[in-house]
Amino acid sequence: MIDLRRLRYFLTVSDELHFGRAASRLHIAQPPLTRQISALEAELGFRLFDRSTRNVTLTSEGRHFLPYARAVLEQVDLTAAITGKLAAGSAGHLAVGYASSIALSDIFSQTIQAFCTSYPDVQLSVEEGASSTQWAHIIEGRLDIGMSRMQPPGDDTDVQAICLDNEPLVAAIASDSPLARQEQVTLAELSVYPLIAFPADYGSGLNEIVETLYRRHALTRRPAPTGKQITSIIALVAAGRGVAVVPQCTQTLAKRGVTYRPLAEPEATAPLLVLTRKRERSPLVGAFVDVIKQTIGME
């Protein structure tokens, strides 16, 4: 294996084309430098420099070898830098899951932007999925972090949830509905219409929140078509297939034929939860959570 120190000596001499100046840059005496270059030439099997009492020039072989030597040392330096960043927790890979409604919020986009700006050496991947899917993927190690609307089950000892915010829920109504002319609507008024939601077996946190609200107010949910994404749910509302209860950030989907109205019930909110493995040791996970907290102004 070629001695990397000798490669560095070779690059310095090739830059200076003078052994005395190169030795001065390297903070060594000239004779040891000359011996190291001679040893490198013997190792390679060809001369790198033509030397005379007045001039030092690269040989043809030396000129061809120079870019390869430089590339090797650049890669070594890059590896050392990345190794240090990995040890410090500022490089690596982070996999983040999110519920489809969360992707519409400013918090989500601002967090991703701020994190990527602060940690440019981290390879970030994001994956949309229902809350129950996120729990499973975090336990399996496929995800490092989840951004969810629903707490893990009480008997789940491997995933913990941190509530960072509560977002008001709003009603999504067809624009030609009489409810669209009101300043706000009640859940009782919505219950007259079919309620569009995620499929029952999808594992949606938003579904659980809305169903809990209906039960609390002794309301019966009328069946309606379902969608696996918040965009498809809003499309069904625009098609006149029913109403939906969605997070306030969904209003960024300015779909023609859909009107959003606040709900009268103050408890109609959806939490923003960050899911992680318990006893998580990755500094990148902590860094991502800190960035979310900074984004929402949470100490």
Automatic annotation (TrEMBL):
InterPro entries documented for this protein: LysR_HTH_N (IPR000847), LysR_subst-bd (IPR005119), WH-like_DNA-bd_sf (IPR036388), WH_DNA-bd_sf (IPR036390)
Pfam families: HTH_1, LysR_substrate
UniProt xrefs under Gene3D superfamilies: Periplasmic binding protein-like II, Winged helix-like DNA-binding domain superfamily/Winged helix DNA-binding domain
UniProt KW DNA-binding keyword: yes
GO molecular function: DNA binding; DNA-binding transcription factor activity
GO cellular component terms, semicolon-separated: protein-DNA complex
Alphabetical UniProt keywords: DNA-binding, Transcription, Transcription regulation
PANTHER family: HCA OPERON TRANSCRIPTIONAL ACTIVATOR HCAR, TRANSCRIPTIONAL DUAL REGULATOR HCAR-RELATED
Protein name: LysR family transcriptional regulator
Organism per entry: Pseudomonas batumici
